[in-house]
Each structure stands twice: as C-alpha cells, then as structure tokens.
Specification:
alpha+beta, four-stranded mixed sheet, 4 strands, RelE/ParE_toxin_dom_sf
Length: about 90
C-alpha cells in the first residue's frame, strides 16, 4: 500500500538549493519509502517537542527529515541538508 508525499514549504525550499541530480536522488528515496512504508524505521529520539516523531533517511552526505502519518497514509518531508548542519540546529539549546 503506497503512501502519498506531502512536502512542507521548508522541504521544498531546501530541495531547490541542491544540485538537480542530488535533488532527484532525494525524491527517488522518498518515493521508495512511500511505495514501501514498512521499511521506515522508528522515529528519532531526544528531539525538542515540536519535532517529536521525526524520522530521517540518508541520501549520500545529506539527511532527509520527515514525519510519517500512518493514519492518513502520508509522508511529510520537513527538510533536507548536510548532516553536520542539521544535527547542530536540532540539538542547539539542549
């Protein structure tokens, strides 16, 4: 059973900054997850409350962060960026 993909504006903004080939790889990875949502692992731990339930997937040096709504059967991409930048932003202030 395939899930739909409903990207947030923040994801679209960061995706546009990427090289076209890399952006295509990110989209292909999300489509693969949407086609087979059973391969999505558990959500990340120790995040601020507003990011609760966030998942991640690796695409080369990048990390794609997204939420999964199993009830609505959709994947909601949040943002994509380099690993070092994203983790520094997520855990700042903890």
């Amino acid at each position: 059973m395939a899930y739909s993909i409903r990207p947030l504006v923040s994801f679209e903004r960061t995706l546009r900054k990427l090289d076209k080939q890399i952006a295509r790889r990110v989209i292909e990875k999300l489509e693969a997850l949407a086609e087979n949502p059973g391969i999505i692992g558990s959500s990340m731990a120790n995040l601020p409350k507003d990011l609760s339930g966030l998942h991640k997937v690796r695409v080369g040096d990048l990390r794609v962060f997204f939420w999964v709504d199993h009830r609505k059967e959709e994947i909601v991409p949040y943002v994509v960026d380099r690993r070092d930048i994203m983790y520094k932003n997520f855990y700042r202030g903890k």
